[in-house]
Specification:
The chain is an alpha+beta fold. The chain is 33% helix and 27% strand. The termini are far apart.
Amino acid sequence: MNRVTLFSLFMALALILAACAPAATPAPTPTPLPPTPMPQPTPTEAPKTIVDLAVADGRFNTLVAAVQAAGLVDTLKGDGPFTVFAPTDDAFAKLPAGTLDELLKPENQQKLVDILTYHVVAGKVMAADVVKLNEAETLLGTPVMIKVDGNTVKINEATVVITDVVGSNGVIHVIDSVLLPPADIVDSALADQRFSTLAAAIQAAGLVDTLKGKGPFTVFAPTDEAFAKLPAGTLDELLKPENKDTLIKILTYHVIPGRYNSTSLSSQTEIATVEGNTIDLQSDGNSLKVNDASVLVADVMARNGIIHAIDTVILPPKDIVDTAVENGSFNTLAAALQAAGLVETLKGKGPFTVFAPTDEAFAKLPAGTVQNLLKPENKDLLVKILTYHVVPGKLKAADVLAASELKTVQGFPVQIRTEEGKVFVDNAQVVLTDVRTSNGVIHVIDTVILPPDDIVDTAIKDGRFKTLVAAVQAAGLVETLKGEGPFTVFAPTDQAFAKLPAGTLTTLLKPENKQQLVDILTYHVVAGKLPAAEVVKQFEIKTAQGQPVLVKVDGDKVFINNAQVILTDIRAGNGIIHVIDAVILPPKDIVDTAAGDARFKTLVAAVQAAGLVETLKGEGPFTVFAPTDQAFAKLPAGTLNELLKPENKQKLTDILTYHVVSGKVYAKDVVNLTEATTVLGKNVTIKVMDGKVYINDAQVIITDILCSNGVIQVIDTVILPPQ
């Protein structure tokens, strides 16, 4: 309802009330009020585009005139959004005299378009986002560089003076200089007097069109002074037509595909060049090195890439063999490679890491050794030694340091260790690292490293393992233990074998007992290489025979089952040997283990009477709380005899299965339990009091008797199931 209607109703109501009211003294006639004016809607100003903002601002008259002359008004009034780095009139005034007038001429429209679109970035990029960038791609297709120094933000060489002028189709950031699109890489080099030699080399190599192409490229550009550092006459030779291929190889080794500014390069350690080889990059945050060259001036923008000026010409590396030959310190190594027929291999694709002994390293070998190795009849041995110095892949010094061992081409690993800041490969000290080659890397060492013997040959040469060696031969395990592995062998000494019952060894070595001998020997072998420091962290280790051994640490003594480890970490090429003082025998099943132990005669008789032999010889695993004969003797007189009667078989079965728990529960696990469910289905309670462990009221007196299908925990009392 409008205001006029309300007013009319109000007046009518007033007249009715007046008619009904008693007569009164006439009042003076009121002076009529002027009508209340109707409120008018406030006109809404249309949102301003980037062009509208520039026109209205007053500081961008020259920019507006340029946008109009370039025919970009409709573009910059379009949907966008755009980010415009807008030069002020004062910025344009800093251009050389006459430049602006030339640019505004119709015949220079394209040049003007290029300049203006070099100030425009697609998207709306607010100041808070600009400062997070290193560069931004412009509509021209060439990026601008962004640098933040404290509170100052620069776009190329122009300083941002006002930020975040927001329009309907984007945002303006005001800058104090006009941004001029850079020339291409070749023209940039030609225009810079520091790169006259480089420009001449590019022309001689026929690379002008390539480096004026679309790219983008990153060029590490040696200055004239850098070229002058080359040996006398080198440059003149390179510029000759007959050396064009070499020149191309050198120049393209200075070029990386893509555009990489100094910030992105600082985060890398290696990058591939157009030539095909990689260059190494090192940065300490303030400076950048490319191989052995220092970057003098970084981030020189070009239309089709970016230029970094360097102080040294970087030369493409040669392969491992040629690098060694050219060095002069590896004459013996080079001769050995030829004698071993490994030249073509180490000139191949690779990559390889070579620990290269110097001539002085070879000279440290016993007199006559090198001469003997170089003889044709010793070629296989020479190949074995040389390939032990080679690791597949390209491992720089930092990678080598991160490893404890590295598998060589020969097959056996070398050991890496650091002592007092020095790095050793086996017993050889690394004296120089990261010698760059085209197919890998060389680390120089001061000693020839010799591959260790395999486990079998190590045992043979030791002298303490004659019986073990004879057993390995009789069991047909020589080739296995000379194989790649790696293996960990718990090796009994001759004295350990001598502790076996008389005649046992002779019997085992008979052909008809070969399988039993194999089982015993493989029970001493673990797959993988476990040094002593790792062994002591284990509780149970599965052997090659299939059954585990238990590891027990008692103070400074270590036991494998019942055998003490008396010497550790004897290195072999395909594993490691730990010496033990007793032969360890593969465990038997629970029934046979009990039957072989004189303390369980009554238990064995009861198991037989209950018909549980086959069950407890089965796969399991089971944990048996095994009462000794003395435990059974504690039962009331006549109880055992009654239980062994056929008519009481079920009662005996219940008692015996109340001593059995499914699964293999070692003592270390038992003490963490409060109860366990038995095969009978009823629980036993587990208590630890004063360092003693009780199953119900029976004390555990011996723990962890290992069986092939479980474990026996010995108790001093027969436990009876609850009624």
